[in-house]
Structures are given as structure tokens and as C-alpha cells.
């Protein structure tokens, strides 16, 4: 979200994060940017709880 760096995180890894995170299902699994340490948001991800996250949802607001 901060430097526009894109990182391909394997879906398997994201799912593991999602499974461990039993917090707010409206928030996608959070990763930190390797370059700037900033928050990352999935370009598109459908979570285990059926929630869909799209980066366009947060970018346009
Ligand atoms: Zn960054």
C-alpha cells in the first residue's frame, strides 16, 4: 500500500495465515512489504470465510 511494490505470495501461504488468524473476518490476512515494511493488501483474495478482498475496494475510497 505504501510503495506499490507487488509481491506474489503463494495462495497456500495466504491460506495458512488466514487459518491462523481468527480475528475479524472482514480484514484480509496482513502481510508486510519486504521493501518498506508497509502494509500490504491482496490484489484479489477470497478468504476461508467466504469474504472477498480486492485492492480496488480500498484504493478507490
Ligand atoms: Zn513497500
Written account of the structure:
The chain has 61 residues and is an alpha+beta fold. The chain has one domain. 25% of the residues lie in helices and 16% in strands. The protein is built from 2 helices and 4 strands. The protein has helices at 11-20, 55-59, and strands at residues 31-32, 39-40, 44-46, 52-54. Strand 1 and strand 2 form a beta hairpin. Zinc ion (ZN) is lined by residues 2-3, 5, 33, 35-36, 38.
Which features does this protein show?
single chain; alpha+beta; two-stranded antiparallel sheet; 2 helices; globular; binds zinc ion
How many structural domains in the coordinates?
A: 1
Estimate percent helicity: 10-25%
Structural category: alpha+beta
Question: Helical segment tally?
Answer: 2
Q: Multimeric state of these chains?
A: single chain
Given as residue ranges, the uncertain stretches (5+ residues, pLDDT < 50) are none
Mean pLDDT over the full residue set: 82
Tell the overall outline: globular
Radius of gyration: 11 Å
Written as H for each helix and E for each strand, in order along the chain, the element string is HEEEEH
Strand content: 15-25%
Largest sheet: 2 strands, antiparallel
Layout of helices and strands, plus pairs?
Elements: H1 11-20, E1 31-32, E2 39-40, E3 44-46, E4 52-54, H2 55-59
Antiparallel strand pairs: 1-2, 3-4
Bound molecules: zinc ion.
In short:
With 61 residues, the chain is of the alpha+beta class.
Amino acid at each position: 500500500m505504501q510503495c506499490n511494490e507487488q509481491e506474489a505470495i503463494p495462495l497456500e501461504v495466504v491460506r495458512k495465515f488466514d487459518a491462523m488468524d481468527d480475528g475479524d473476518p472482514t480484514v484480509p490476512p496482513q502481510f508486510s512489504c519486504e521493501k518498506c515494511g508497509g502494509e500490504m493488501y491482496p490484489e484479489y483474495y477470497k478468504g476461508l470465510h467466504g469474504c472477498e478482498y480486492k485492492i480496488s475496494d480500498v484504493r478507490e475510497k
